[in-house]
Design a protein that fits this description.
By secondary structure, this protein is α+β, with helices and mostly antiparallel strands. Helices cover about 60% and strands about 15% of the residues. Strands 1-2-3-5-4 form a 5-stranded mixed β-barrel.
Amino acid sequence: MKKTLGVILLTWVTAAPFQDRQTQQVFSGRLSDSMCGASHQMKAAAGKVSERECLFECIKALAQYVLVDDKQQVIAIANQDLGGLPLYAGRPVRITGELKDGAIVATKIEAIPAHLHLGHVMTNWRDTPANVGFLIAAISDGRVAAVHADLAAKSADDLEAMKLHAGHVLNALDSSVEPKGPGSGYGVRKAATGALQHLEFAVQAEGVTANIKTHAAQVSASLNNVLQWTDQAVNLAQKIRTATTAAQAAAMVNDLTALTKNISERGLQQAKTEMDLI
């Protein structure tokens, strides 16, 4: 009797995990919120924000994360504390879990490989300041460079001030050239290079779409321009730092201002605009 009971108990213990695995499904779709559901276009356009930014605004307003499948059906997610929900917000994902009472009880969420790399461009990377995406890091340092180039231009009769701000521009553009300054310590050059690399990974990865390829080409063009302008700005800032007269430095400062403005506004902001369309 004891032996029979032991066999039954062992069978139940070993079968239970197998049965649990059988009830698990993989759900694919885009992570959205319960307020906007399948489309953020109307609300995002009204608020002049990206769809991802709209999603976070909805979550702040107590909406819940949902999955929108390929048929545009909105499926609730039961466990809102699942790790990865904020990280993959607005992105195509695969969710492993069980459907109970119309909601997914999720055990795992993972990005589609192409979108994982897009996340590295826009959302997170392990060694950037505050672990932001490469492009976000580049935009932040690009703004710092533009501000200090402008400050240098406003000090056209002060050689030391122009040299000081030229150093600050260098720090924001490439901290390996000038480690001290108001930049993040990461630099536009390093961040833009990382963004470009992971964008190329995304285009070659599983799950890439025609939409990704189209906008990625535009982003890549913008980032390549940024890197070219950065090279020119770094060279110019170094020349300003070696100038011997205010007149000599002032003759180069306006060009530095134009280059950093191109980097920040024409290059990086345009890249972000295209990324927001993916």
